[in-house]
Recover the amino acids of this structure.
C-alpha cells in the first residue's frame, strides 16, 4: 500500500469521479484507475461501486476512507515537522484567543507583559516563524484545537463555584494541556442609581470590617442571591465568564436573567454604567457612573489559560511558542490545573462552554 494510492482513492471518493480525480491529480484516468485497482487487490475488497453513472463508495470503501485520510494527514504532519526542525528557522503557528485577551492583570495581582509584547519578543528570537491569530469564544476554540484547526489558544475558563471537590464548572478538557495564567473573582457593576448600588451587604469581601470607598471596588460584598429579579449583563453562552456566572447563580438558587449580551468585559461595564443592567465581570476599574461591588455566596471566579492538544507531539514552532508563553506567564503557583478531564457539576451541566479573565479579557 502506497501513500499515492491512498491519495488517489481519497480524491475519487471526494469527487465521485475517476475523470475529475485524474484532472485534479494531473494524471491520466487509466493511471488513476490502475492504482486504485491495485489497492483494491491488496485489500481484498472493491472500494468503489462502478455500476452507476457516478462512482460510489462500497461499504468497505466507506470504512477505509477515514483511515486513508488519517494516514495522509499524518504523512503531511511528518513532512512539516521535518521541514521545521532546521533550528526553528521557519514555521507557522495558528493561535486562538478570547476577545480582548491582552493578558494584562489587575494591578493587585502583579504585572507581566501583554500578549502583543510577548509575541514580539518571541518573533525576535525566531524571525522565520509566522502567526495566524484568530479571535473566538473558548467553546469554539476548544473544538478547533481538537480538530487540528488551531495549534494553541488563550482561553477563558470558569473556576470552582461551589467549593466542592471536582466542581470547576467546566467539562470536556480531555486531550488538552492547560496552563493557568491568571485567576480573578467576578464583581457586580451597576449604574450608581441602580437599586443594588445601595443595598447593604454582609460586610467587606475580605472580612476586614471596613466599607472603603477609596478603591474602584466598594468594600461591601453583595450576595449573589441579591441578583435575583434584576436584569443582568454578561457575555454570550459558550464563554467562561457566562458559565461562571450561571454556576454561581445556580449555587445561590437564582435563575439567570441575562437581558443584554456583549463580547468583552469593557463593553459589559459600559452597558451597566448606562443603566442596562447589572454586569458581572472581572473588576473593570474606575468608570464614571459605575458602582462596583464584590460578590459573595459564592464568589464566582474565572481564569485565563493557555491550552494545546496532547494527542500528538506539537510541531517545533508550536512547542517553542508554548515554552516561551509559559515562561512569560508562570501563573498562580497553586492554580496550575492538570491536563485531563474536568468533570462538570450537575448544576453546571447546561452551560455550553468557557471563557474570560482580567479587565482586558473577554470570553
Amino acid at each position: 500500500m502506497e501513500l499515492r494510492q491512498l491519495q488517489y482513492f481519497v480524491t475519487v471518493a471526494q469527487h465521485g469521479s475517476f475523470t475529475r480525480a485524474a484532472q485534479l491529480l494531473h494524471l491520466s484516468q487509466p493511471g488513476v484507475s490502475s492504482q486504485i485497482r491495485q489497492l483494491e487487490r491488496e485489500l481484498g475488497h472493491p472500494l468503489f461501486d462502478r455500476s452507476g453513472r457516478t462512482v460510489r463508495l462500497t461499504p468497505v470503501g466507506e470504512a477505509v476512507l477515514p483511515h486513508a485520510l488519517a494516514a495522509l494527514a499524518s504523512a503531511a504532519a511528518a513532512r512539516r515537522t521535518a521541514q521545521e526542525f532546521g533550528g526553528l528557522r521557519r514555521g507557522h503557528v495558528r493561535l486562538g484567543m478570547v476577545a480582548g485577551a491582552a493578558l494584562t492583570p489587575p494591578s493587585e495581582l502583579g504585572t507581566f507583559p501583554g500578549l502583543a509584547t510577548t509575541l514580539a519578543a518571541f518573533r525576535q528570537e525566531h524571525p522565520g516563524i509566522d502567526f495566524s491569530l484568530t479571535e473566538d469564544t473558548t467553546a469554539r476554540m476548544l473544538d478547533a484545537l481538537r480538530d487540528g484547526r488551531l495549534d494553541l489558544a488563550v482561553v477563558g475558563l470558569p473556576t470552582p463555584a461551589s467549593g466542592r471537590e471536582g466542581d470547576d464548572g467546566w467539562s470536556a478538557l480531555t486531550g488538552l494541556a492547560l496552563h493557568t495564567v491568571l485567576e480573578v473573582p467576578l464583581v457586580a457593576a451597576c449604574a450608581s442609581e441602580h437599586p443594588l448600588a445601595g443595598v447593604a451587604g454582609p460586610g467587606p469581601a475580605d472580612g476586614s470590617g471596613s466599607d472603603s470607598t477609596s478603591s474602584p471596588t466598594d468594600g461591601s460584598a453583595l450576595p449573589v442571591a441579591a441578583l435575583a429579579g434584576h436584569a443582568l449583563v454578561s457575555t454570550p453562552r459558550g464563554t467562561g465568564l457566562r458559565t461562571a456566572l450561571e454556576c454561581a447563580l445556580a449555587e445561590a438558587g437564582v435563575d439567570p436573567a441575562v437581558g443584554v449580551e456583549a463580547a468583552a468585559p469593557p463593553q459589559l461595564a459600559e452597558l451597566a454604567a448606562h443603566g442596562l443592567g447589572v454586569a458581572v465581570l472581572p473588576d473593570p476599574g474606575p468608570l464614571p457612573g459605575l458602582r462596583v461591588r464584590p460578590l459573595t455566596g459564592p464568589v464566582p471566579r474565572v481564569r485565563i489559560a493557555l491550552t494545546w492538544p496532547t494527542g500528538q507531539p506539537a510541531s517545533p514552532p508550536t512547542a517553542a511558542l508554548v515554552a516561551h508563553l509559559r515562561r512569560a506567564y508562570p501563573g498562580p503557583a497553586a492554580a496550575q490545573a492538570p491536563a485531563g478531564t474536568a468533570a462538570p457539576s450537575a448544576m453546571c451541566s447546561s452551560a455550553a462552554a468557557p471563557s474570560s479573565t482580567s479587565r482586558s479579557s473577554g470570553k
